[in-house]
Amino acid sequence: MGINLTKGQKINLVKDSGExxxxxxxxxxxxxxxxxxxxxxxxxxxxxEDVDLDLSCILTDAKGEWKDHVYSPEYNGFLKKNNYPLGxxxxxDNALRHSGDDLGQGGGxxxxxxxxxxxxxxxxxxxxIFFFLNIYLNQGQSFDFSQIPFAKIKMxxxxxxxxxxxxxxxxxxxDDSYKNQRALIMGKxxxxxNEWKFDAIGDASDDQIFLxxxxxxxKSYN
Length: 222
Fold this sequence. Notes:
single chain, 6-stranded mixed β-sheet, 6-stranded antiparallel β-sheet, mainly beta, Lipoxygenase-1, 2 helices
């Protein structure tokens, strides 16, 4: 088992052998929401809500300026219409690769999205890599992070479908303090004295779309 991080904790990216950890996966996992609703003719019933969380990341340079990104191409119609950078699943340098959108359908507690990272090939001008989550609400849905059973970020060696060795995990406490919050800045990789480290952030906000979260990161977390 890896290190269980707490909010605000920072760790060095090294293996047990002392070697640098530069190739790994960052996985975010979550569970479906179970609610109780009234029946039309009396009584109640349990309803499982599909929960579509979108894992994204943004890369910034030493000046805190946007260098590259990975986020869902599913938004590209809206993004193109409003002249925003289009979504993509791989960075320009191929150092970060997204596993694709998990729509969180069908109930259960095994939904996840994974970004594979190779720090040895990250553009030399990149100083920080932020990982963040946004809730995508389907028509008729209305919920927030306080209702999601759990959200967890995990860093491990392996592939998107196989965990070889877990190095750290960070459990997000989804409680009443997250009421009305639909975005989470989960953590960041950052370079210090040419060494990469990880910072568990875990800050929630009421952003309605990931572009607001990116603006928040650029303004307040650089």
